[in-house]
Write a structure and sequence with these properties.
Structural class: alpha+beta
Shape: globular
Number of helices: 5
């Protein structure tokens, strides 16, 4: 449901002197709604992160694949990844020096996972305005077409909120998706090597197919916005646990780095932010 005062338009990035991204990356983000691949973590570093993520998934059992949502303010390991300067330097090139991380999710598709993520626009599910969130997708495993890498429909971030349809076939991770997405253009497969990231706009239509391969496809999503973005629904605001990553957080309620790094030693956050 869209609020009357919710701004879901796209505002092009104007940055003539980016620190990490280049002019082509920013142009692609403006025109197509994403840029990738960006090298962030070395093989040794992502191996350590993968071991940490694997332990979280194992601890959560059946909920591990899609249920580790919004723990960035509850686990020091996830907090430290979300506030990593190399990631933030990329994000700053798109949204400026004041950066909040308000959501995160570990999304792990096992080999032969039959479920798809239907085409959708993230910001149309969120009670935020204006639509200025940038999602970082960190590849924990290599991701490609064979093991169900995320797919984008380039340029759809500039179309505003699109009509949705209900998915009730039991094969979708969630029940709503963008209607008639096949007519919006040819998909782009977001192939990444482990340790690389992509960045995409919050109104870009994206999704993923079932993983029919023998390889897992695991990624960590991190949602970043500048403080001029506002939460426009009081009930929704109670479920958001933002962290101040860089600069001035403005009026946002933020949380300090947690001492805890045991997912079983904390309660599950109230999840409103991921889909």
């Amino acid at each position: 449901m869209l609020f009357m005062n919710q701004d879901l338009s796209f505002k092009p990035v104007l940055n003539e002197r980016p620190h990490v991204l280049n002019a082509a990356d920013i142009s692609r983000y403006n025109l197509e709604g994403f840029c990738q691949p960006i090298n962030v973590f070395s093989p040794a570093e992502i191996s350590e992160i993968r071991a940490y993520v694997n332990n979280l998934i194992a601890a959560m059992g059946e909920k591990g694949g899609y249920g580790i949502n919004c723990y960035q303010a509850r686990l020091s390991g996830l907090y430290d990844i979300a506030t990593n300067p190399r990631i933030l330097d990329c994000v700053e090139d798109l949204i400026g020096p004041n950066i909040l991380c308000w959501a995160s999710a570990i999304l792990s598709k096992k080999p032969h996972d039959p479920k798809r993520v239907p085409w959708h626009q993230d910001a149309s599910f969120w009670m935020l305005s204006p639509a200025r969130t940038v999602t970082v997708w960190l590849a924990i495993d290599d991701a490609d077409e064979a093991n169900s890498a995320m797919r984008f429909i380039p340029g759809t971030h500039k179309l505003g909120p699109l009509e949705t349809s209900t998915r009730d076939d039991g094969a979708s991770v969630f029940h709503k998706g963008t209607a008639d997405a096949d007519a919006l253009g040819a998909p782009f497969t977001n192939s990444l090597k482990a340790g690389q990231i992509s960045l995409h706009a919050d109104m870009l239509v994206h999704g993923s197919q079932p993983n029919i391969s023998d390889r897992r496809r695991c990624g960590l999503t991190l949602r970043y916005c500048p403080p001029e973005v506002r939460i426009i629904d009081a009930d929704w605001e109670r479920g958001v646990e933002a962290i101040a990553c860089r600069g001035n957080p403005g009026d946002w309620r933020t949380h300090p780095r947690p001492d805890n790094n045991d997912i079983l030693a904390t309660t599950s956050p109230v999840v409103v932010a991921n889909n």
